[in-house]
Structure formats: C-alpha cells, structure tokens
Amino acid sequence: MGKSLNQTLTRDANSRYDRVRLMLEHRSAKRRFERLRRVYHQPLEEIFPGLSRTRARMQSAVPTAASFGNMPAYDLLVLSTVCAHLQPRLLLEFGTYDGLTTLHLAMNSPAEARVVTLDLHPDDPIRQQNTEDTFYTRGVTVGAHFCGKPEGRKIQQVYGDTTKFDQTPYRGQVDFIFVDAGHAYELVRSDSQKALEMVRPGGVVLWHDYHYTHDGVYTCLNELTSSVTLRNVPDTTLVCHISPLSGG
Ligand SMILES: C[S@@+](CC[C@H](N)C(=O)[O-])C[C@H]1O[C@@H](n2cnc3c(N)ncnc32)[C@H](O)[C@@H]1O
Predict the structure, then answer these.
(1) Which of 135, 180, 211 has the most ligand 1 atoms within 8 A of CB, as the residue to mutate?
(2) C-beta 192 within 6 A of ligand 1
(3) Does the N-terminal or the C-terminal CB of the chain have fewer CB atoms within 10 Å?
(4) How many domains is the chain built from?
(5) What pTM does this model have?
(6) What residues make up the domain containing 117?
(7) Spacing, Cα 119 to ligand 1 middle (Å)
(8) Tell me, what CATH number does 112's domain have?
(9) Ligand 1 center to residue 180 CA distance, Å?
(10) What does the alpha-carbon distance between residue 38 and residue 5 come to, in Å, rounded to a whole number?
C-alpha cells in the first residue's frame, strides 16, 4: 500500500535536501487545499448565537495533550464549548483513541446524557497495518482517559470497524456527533453518511481534520457541500453541520 499524503508530510526529514523538499511539499499541499476549498470559515458566534457566554469544563494537566492522535487544545476547547452550549443528551463519537475528547463530551453534557464512542477492538488486525490511521494507536489504551473517572459512567465504549457499524437504531436520534476515526477518503465518506443519517433535526455533526495534510477528509467534506451546509470554525480544523429542523 502506498503512503498517504499525511504519512508523507509527517515523515522525518534527515538531510538538508529532504527538509527543503518537505517544506516545498507542505507549501504545495496547502495551495492545493485552498484552491479546492468548499467549506468556508464562519465565526463561532454566528454558527451558534450566544455561545460566547457559555463556559466549558476542561480536564487540567492532561498527560498526553501533545499526542499525535489527540486534537489541538483550542479545537478541544471549541468542541467542549459547543457541547456545553447545546447540552446534548445523546452523543456519538467515531474514533475514541485514548478517550480524551470522549471525556470532554461527557464533562460538558447533562448528567443524564449518554456518549457512545466507537473504535477498533484493541486486537483488531487493522491496527497492525501501517496506515495514517493506525501507526500512532499502538500502545495506546482505548478510552484510557475516562476509565475510572466519574463521567465514565455516561460513556458506552463500542468496539468495531465504523464502516460495519449499524447506524439504523440511531436514525434521526442523535443530538451531537463527532466524526474523527479513519481519515482515508472511503472511511470518511462512510462515517459521514452514517452521521448524517443518525443526526436528529436540529442536531449537530462536527468533523475533525479539515486540513491540507488530510486529503481524504477535505475531499469528502468538499463533496458533501453539494448536499449539506458545512462551515469551518476559524483557527481550527473543525467543520460543523447543523441539521435542518424540517426538510432540506
Ligand atoms: C484521530 S484518532 C481519534 C482521536 C479522538 N477522537 C480524540 O479527539 O482524542 C482516530 C481513531 O480512529 C480509530 N479508527 C481508525 N480507523 C477506524 C475504523 N475503521 N473503525 C473504527 N475506528 C477506527 C483509530 O484506532 C484511532 O483511535
């Protein structure tokens, strides 16, 4: 299997020649991303009026804050604030990883909320493949951040490949969905279709990694703009869709 754009751009450059080459590859990938962009920035307060008055709860001094698989701190702050603002009762996350974001979804939702989070089983053979979606998950305990925490009782860990997940029991039911599992185009497309089927009218879907290093994500989200309204939260790689209350 060939290397993905993400694997190529995040490689170590050991010689001066390769460092220069890598810098030029980043520049060219950024230009391509901006040329193809179909999801445009919109200020958070316009997407969610009143959000600036919302306070989110954050886990302090997170031991793996800079881990490759976790999102940047500001993205996590935005996601937590949107969650605290909306007070969703049924939440679903594609891609648990170490559970840091799952914990924040649980910390910023009402006491009676349920957070369903999906990831590959720790022994799933897919984890042994060397793809952009697997190499950094080795040695990481799925859901480690919420295990033993009081908010953990709200969380239901589901193991399995998201492309095989049966979304039908959740159709039109979920208040808040976070899509952040596989980044290859086919995976993002499948997860996005399921998310759009599961979100309730008026509910919210957020995607992570709308960024020049993730061509699978941005290609899929750009395509989706022909059927749904998507906005990119400024200074983050988060993309947001609010499901219309009726029709469309
Ligand atoms: C970027 S990490 C998720 C990070 C997490 N949402 C957070 O914010 O901290 C992506 C996760 O998706 C999982 N994943 C990748 N492909 C998957 C698939 N086909 N089915 C289920 N999980 C998958 C990986 O095992 C990894 O833990």
Answers:
(1) 180
(2) no
(3) N
(4) 1
(5) 0.94
(6) 5-242
(7) 6
(8) 3.40.50.150
(9) 6
(10) 19
